[in-house]
Amino acid sequence: MTRVLFVGQKPETVDFSDPALPPGFDAKQIQAGIDLAESTMTERGWDNDICMIAPDDSGIAVLTAQLARVDYDAVVVGGGLRIPPKGLVFFEKVINAIHQGAPKAAIAFNTRPEDTAEAAARWAGEHQR
User: Fold this and answer.
1) What's the pTM value of the predicted model, to 2 decimals?
2) How many CB atoms lie within 10 A of CB 52?
3) Beta-carbon count within 10 A of 28 CB
4) Is 84:117 a contact under the CB 8 Å cutoff?
5) What is the chain's pLDDT, residue by residue, as a tens digit (129 residues)?
6) Which of 8, 14, 19, 29 could cross-link to 78 by cystine, CB 3.0-4.6 Å?
């Protein structure tokens, strides 16, 4: 069975004043996207986990612990972790934690929560155990 992890930023920790984010974007929209991502992965019959993290060292600790519990076929990194320029250093920490904690997993990127399953599908099938 395909195992997928979706990693993103906790909606309540997003800085909505950041001009890199779309105007009017809010935590409810982010949560709705996360919920949709989870349901589309479940519809594909995948075992999936959602790991929403704070953009700090505590978030990296949560991600590292999650990666230690399960061997994933693919890890999808949400746009909220990689798009805002001021988050670049944290994004690098996320990628390195994934690389170290899930060295056999493919890493994928979504363009919005709604295409999380599509991002995982590009890689998960090729890396099934």
Assistant:
1) 0.82
2) 20
3) 9
4) no
5) 899 999 999 999 998 888 878 888 899 999 999 999 999 999 999 999 999 999 999 999 999 999 999 999 999 999 888 877 778 889 999 999 999 999 999 999 998 888 999 999 998 765 444
6) 8
